[in-house]
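re the bet — no i am not wrong, look at it urself. input seq straight from the record:
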Amino acid sequence: MGRTRIGSFDEFWPFYLGQHRKRLTRTLHLLGTDAAAVAIVAAAIQRKPKLLLLGLVVVYAFAWVGHFFVEHNRPATFQYPLWSLVADWKMWALRLAGRLPAELRRHGIEP
C-alpha cells in the first residue's frame, strides 16, 4: 500500500526536516540556497534572467548530491515541488536567524 499524501505545509515541514537529518545534507542545501540567492540578486541587478536558471541548476545540484550521496533518500522535490521550495527557503531563513538548531531539536533532530 502506498504512502498517504501529505495534505498541508504544516504536515510537510517535519517530513522535510526528517529528509535532512545529516548536517552535511543541510549544509549542501544551504550552500545551494545561498548561491541561488546570489543568482537572484545578480539577475535583478544585471537584468539577466538567465542567471535565474543558473541559480536553479546550482541549488538543485547541491541539494541532490546531499540526498543521493549523503542522506541516501529521494528528494522531496520529486513529490512536493512547491512545498520543498518553500521549505528550502524556510530552512535558509531559520539558519540566518540562528533559529535552525532549535527548530531541528523541536522535531527530534540533533543539529
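see?? The chain has five helices and no strands. told u. also The helical segments are 9-18, 23-46, 50-71, 81-96, 100-106. so pay up
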